[in-house]
Amino acid sequence: MSAPSVGSIFFDIGDTLATASITSGGTRLVLTVLPGVLSVLTKLRDNSIPLGIISNTPDNFTQAMMERSLSDAGLFDFFSPELLIYSSEVGLRKDSVMIFCFAADRAGFPHERNKCLFVGEKSTERHFAKVADFKFFENPNDVLTWIMAREG
């Protein structure tokens, strides 16, 4: 599998890759990976497609806290560190095109944002990804199916 027209794929975390809950003290995010996600991420990573995250995170959550949560859930190693974009760190949220433009820049596609894909369960977030010229999908299985179909 190779997808030369795909530059990078960005995923939302909560309800796309995993269910998420914040501990009672509000200092830790616990992720439970959704069925099929690890298989999809493995296939994408094994075919050299750079993977990233675009996530709205609580203001008090640092990059280190997010990466610990991803690591504890067995997700961290699938993603390129430079493509991990957390709203609490970059000051942008998925309620505008700006975070998607920021992600495309980080991925090296500031003028070819249509090479970036966003996978997220919320239609409003997919709308802003579309406005930013990203391809978009509701769930991880959809993006894998799309890539496989393009290869014939």
Task: Tell me what you see in this structure.
The protein has one domain (8-151): HAD superfamily/HAD-like (Rossmann fold, 3-Layer(aba) Sandwich), CATH 3.40.50.1000. It contains 6 helices and 7 strands, in the order E-E-E-H-E-H-E-H-H-E-H-E-H. It has helices at 37-46, 63-72, 87-90, 98-107, 123-131, 140-151; strands at 8-11, 18-22, 29-33, 51-55, 84-86, 116-119, 135-137. The strands form 2 sheets. Strands 5-4-1-6-7 form a 5-stranded parallel beta sheet, sandwiched between helices. Strands 2-3 form a two-stranded antiparallel ribbon. The model has no long low-confidence stretch (mean pLDDT 93). The chain has 152 residues and is α/β, with parallel strands linked by helices.
Strand content is: 15-25%
In the CATH hierarchy, the third-tier topology is known as: Rossmann fold
Question: Which oligomeric state applies?
Answer: single chain
* Biggest sheet strand line-up: 5-4-1-6-7
Mean pLDDT: 93
Q: What is the CATH superfamily label?
A: HAD superfamily/HAD-like
Largest sheet: 5 strands, parallel
